[in-house]
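Hey, resending since the last one bounced:
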Amino acid sequence: MIHSLLKKYILPKEVDFIQGLQLHAHTIESISNDLLLCFTQEGRQPCQAILDDEHKAKAIREKNMKELLNAFITPIDRESIYRVITQLDWIAISIRHFLLEANAYKVSHLDQAYHPLIRKLTLGAKLLRYGFDKLKEEDTTSVVTQAQEVRDTYDALVGLYITEMARLSKCEDREKVFVEKELLRQLKEIGKRLQMCANSLEDIVIKMQ
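The structure tokens again:
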């Protein structure tokens, strides 16, 4: 009884930050799947879903930030939580930037050559989400494993990026080269953000030991 009263009126509210980050990571995975569908299938519905899910991710980000700012104590390092929140946010923003740039260039469907790169991004987002799920379960060994697999996926994506850039270097259509170079750069940037977030996820696990 006394403990309940203390918890309600005196002790600071306990916030499940890991659950908040987990929810954010699940939304990032949804956005990456939207990206794949948007540019590999006909129709605009998946493309609109990118924007809808990005708004959802932004709302989660704002909620997590508000709770972090108002929290008296946190179960894990405050700076680590902030870093992951902002990096997850950057992934969603980077995907939206890709969509906006593609729309500006009137690109609604990507050639088959791009599909493996986007699939690497969706795989990276899936692995990252799985890492946050394992963090929630306090399975630190699996978290570290998933973080490494995200990095491996980014390395594979960079390999595909280099191959496509080499192909473009032989193209004489200057407009095509410019557009595809910019789109490839954006895809690489999304992959980089996934890797950075995986590193920060691993950092949380190390500080929990």
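The radius of gyration is 19 Å.

Sorry for the duplicate.
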